[in-house]
């Protein structure tokens, strides 16, 4: 339905004027035009009757079509557009450059305000944003049509989102990541998985299991979707994830790059979590700093942060609130749970044991059960169900979660029947794991400090100047200081010979034996010819 113009204006009446002029011209061609008709049209447009006569004259000069000329405006030339692009949309700097180059004459015949109006008239807000911030800024001014809403489980959308909150994870500040699956039609959060670090395929598969299952601690929302939309993240494009969804009969739709609007439902929930959940938690990463805050020091103390378990509880509570209590405008002010239950589309689900099998990675060829267990990745895995099976040398197939090597799942090599789990036999104790983690952390911190010191020493510093001059280096050393640093860095220059570049794989040339070898005779001296 077309938009209705305001009753009191202002609005464009050009097309209406053209229609009225065409009628007057038809009356004139039929010799039925009276002055009363011209006055009637003039009164309708609140103009003088001579103005209507001028409209008719304009139509006569343009083949019977009323074509107003409008006011003449200053327009930008291609050179001005190029200068505006060179200054990244800075109209003031562009105008100063054009004046300095004499483009507008001397004195300038175009004022700065006129130039600004021409820029606003000839460039759209999206084009001006592209000049200032590039393609990403221009896309914010695009208009996207809404996707048609089908039935529940028709299409899911998935994505990772980094929590804008610092959390205490084993005494370290970390920002957890959330991976979730969202039903596009009802905006229900079907499942999620939380990791204290950058997520990978294991987080995707864990979130998929939580989304598909509808029993026990899982939410009553889920099932097997027909399609899943995802971006081009490396973890979503992995072979394990692709095979898992194909076994469900689900089509994985990989969206083109730089197109978050094509999965707008999950992007909207990402933004809602950032503004409605993370901002109210202690440890919010974007809290404004005051003048009393010390620069370089974290704003939140470690003891003020939420621990990882509490953060998970808070996120799960917020997900339940979103699904059951939060109303959404596009759902006709219903909650996602109400929209889900109002849809009577049947839900297809899987048995938990079958789902566990499909979302695991294959460990390679069949392996034999020995007296030490099953060997895989230089370790042995054992389970209590293996007693009585080692002597027969049974063959099993191994499957595991990506990046999870403490536990594997074993299946019969012929029938693929699930046999049971197996755990690493030589697993280190928690105390050993903590000591190893601390040692690795100290080693990483030590090398990070050395790298920072090396970058600082290698960065040249130059003297400040207020006049045109060549750069003058400041961090110049004396000869003795340079020799000391070269000796510390163990470079070949500090030795003064080629010993540091010697190649041990080459043998020394043998010395000549004077008793057996004939030495070359020296060249005779030139004789005097005089």
Summary of the model, kept short:
The protein is α+β, with helices and mostly antiparallel strands. 35% of the residues lie in helices and 13% in strands.
Describe how the helices and strands are arranged.
Elements: H1 14-29, H2 35-44, H3 49-61, H4 78-86, H5 91-100, H6 112-122, H7 125-133, H8 135-139, E1 155-162, E2 167-169, E3 172-174, E4 177-183, E5 189-195, H9 201-212, E6 227-230, H10 239-247, E7 251-254, H11 264-276, E8 306-307, H12 308-324, H13 336-342, H14 352-358, E9 361-362, E10 367-368, E11 374-376, E12 379-382, E13 395-400, E14 407-412, E15 418-424, H15 430-458, H16 479-489
Parallel strand pairs: 1-6, 2-8, 6-7
Antiparallel strand pairs: 1-4, 2-3, 4-5, 9-13, 10-13, 11-12, 12-15, 13-14, 14-15
Helix pairs in contact: 1-3, 2-3, 4-5
Q: Mind explaining what this structure looks like?
A:
- With about 525 residues, the protein is α+β, with helices and mostly antiparallel strands.
- It has helices at about 15-30, 35-45, 50-60, 80-85, 90-100, 110-120, 125-135, 135-140, 200-210, 240-245, 265-275, 310-325, 335-340, 350-360, 430-460, 480-490, and strands spanning about 155-160, 165-170, 170-175, 175-185, 190-195, 225-230, 250-255, 305, 360, 365-370, 375, 380, 395-400, 405-410, 420-425.
């Amino acid at each position: 339905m077309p938009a209705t113009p305001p009753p009191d204006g202002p609005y464009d009446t050009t097309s209406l004027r053209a229609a009225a002029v065409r009628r007057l011209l038809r009356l004139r061609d039929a010799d039925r035009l009276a002055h009363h008709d011209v006055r009637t049209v003039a009164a309708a447009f609140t103009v003088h009757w001579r103005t209507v006569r001028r409209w008719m004259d304009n139509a006569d000069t343009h083949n019977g079509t009323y074509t107003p000329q409008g006011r003449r405006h200053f327009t930008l030339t291609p050179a001005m557009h190029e200068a505006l692009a060179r200054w990244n949309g800075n109209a003031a700097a562009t105008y100063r450059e054009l004046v300095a180059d004499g483009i507008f004459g001397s004195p300038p015949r175009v004022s700065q305000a006129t130039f600004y109006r021409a820029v606003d008239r000839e460039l759209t807000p999206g084009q001006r944003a592209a000049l200032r911030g590039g393609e990403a800024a221009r896309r914010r001014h695009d208009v996207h049509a809404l996707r048609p809403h089908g039935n529940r489980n028709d299409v899911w959308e998935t994505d990772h989102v980094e929590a804008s909150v610092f959390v205490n994870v084993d005494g370290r500040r970390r920002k957890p990541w959330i991976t979730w699956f969202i039903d596009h039609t009802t905006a229900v959060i079907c499942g999620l998985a939380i990791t204290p670090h950058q997520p990978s395929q294991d987080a995707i598969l864990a979130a998929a299991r939580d989304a598909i299952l509808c029993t026990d601690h899982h939410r009553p929302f889920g099932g097997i979707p027909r399609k899943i939309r995802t971006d081009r993240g490396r973890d979503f494009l992995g072979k394990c994830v692709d095979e898992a969804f194909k076994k469900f009969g689900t089509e994985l739709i990989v969206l083109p790059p730089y197109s978050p609007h094509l999965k707008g439902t999950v992007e909207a929930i990402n933004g809602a979590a950032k503004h409605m959940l993370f901002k109210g938690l202690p440890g919010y990463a974007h809290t404004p700093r005051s003048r009393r805050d010390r620069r370089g020091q974290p704003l939140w103390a470690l003891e003020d942060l939420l621990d990882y378990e509490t953060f998970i509880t808070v996120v799960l509570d917020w997900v339940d609130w979103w699904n059951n209590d939060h109303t959404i405008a596009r759902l006709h002010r219903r909650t996602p749970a109400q929209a889900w239950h109002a849809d009577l589309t049947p839900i297809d689900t899987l048995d938990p044991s079958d789902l566990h099998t499909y979302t695991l990675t294959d460990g390679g060829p069949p392996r034999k059960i020995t007296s030490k267990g099953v060997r895989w990745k230089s370790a042995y895995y054992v389970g209590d169900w293996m007693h009585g099976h080692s002597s027969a040398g049974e063959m099993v197939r191994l499957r595991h979660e990506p990046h999870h090597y403490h536990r594997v799942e074993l299946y019969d090599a012929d029938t693929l029947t699930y046999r049971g789990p197996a755990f690493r036999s030589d697993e280190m104790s928690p105390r050993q794991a903590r000591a190893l983690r601390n040692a690795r952390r100290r080693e990483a911190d030590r090398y990070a400090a050395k790298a920072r010191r090396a970058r600082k020493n290698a960065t040249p510093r130059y003297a400040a100047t207020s006049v045109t001059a060549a750069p003058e280096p400041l961090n110049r050393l004396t000869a003795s200081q340079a020799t000391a640093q070269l000796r510390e860095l163990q470079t070949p220059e500090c030795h003064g010979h080629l010993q540091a570049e010697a190649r041990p794989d080459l043998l020394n040339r043998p010395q000549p034996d004077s008793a057996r070898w004939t030495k070359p005779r020296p060249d005779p001296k030139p004789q005097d010819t005089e």
